[in-house]
Write a structure and sequence with these properties.
mainly beta, Cathepsin D, subunit A, domain 1, 4-stranded mixed beta sheet, globular
Length: about 150
């Protein structure tokens, strides 16, 4: 099974998925930056707003998460699913949780930077796959198949 991605903003690899969560009545697409440095898949502020996430329905993660300017309010989406398009149709990845960040920026410049940050596909998902990045061919692939080098 292969999940194709693409090279996007910040000259970085991305993959698209539909985020599904019953308690939020949510089933919408998200563009995820593939981030091997992120331990968990995380929805950032601009996507949280676009998705219409109601923080009041989510559990707060204490003590928060380190973000731009210090500790960021962090919430947990329980038992979400990510629906990826594959070469043969669709594949559903079931997760224990996904984080949602809510920055409170006091400076306009920082607020603008935060709005540009993409959501992150973290190692909680990436560790289940092989990752192929071929910049010259514009190729980004997550795969569960062995790739000989």
């Amino acid at each position: 099974m292969k999940i194709a991605g693409y090279w996007g903003e910040f000259e970085a690899p991305y993959v698209s998925a539909v985020l599904i969560c019953e308690i939020l009545d949510l089933r919408k697409p998200v563009e995820f930056l593939i981030d091997t440095g992120a331990s968990r898949t995380t929805i950032l502020d601009s996507d949280a707003v676009r998705l219409g996430i109601d923080y009041g329905k989510l559990q707060r993660f204490e003590p928060g998460t380190a973000g731009i300017g210090g500790i960021v309010d962090t919430f947990i989406i329980p038992s979400p699913r990510l629906l990826f398009r594959t070469e043969n149709g669709f594949y559903k990845e079931e997760l224990r949780e996904v984080f949602v960040l809510k920055h409170v920026a006091e400076e306009r410049e920082i607020e603008e930077r935060i709005r540009r940050l993409p959501s992150l596909l973290g190692r909680d998902v990436l560790n289940r796959y092989g990752l192929v990045l071929l910049r010259s061919d514009q190729l980004v692939v997550l795969t569960d198949e062995f790739i000989g080098v």
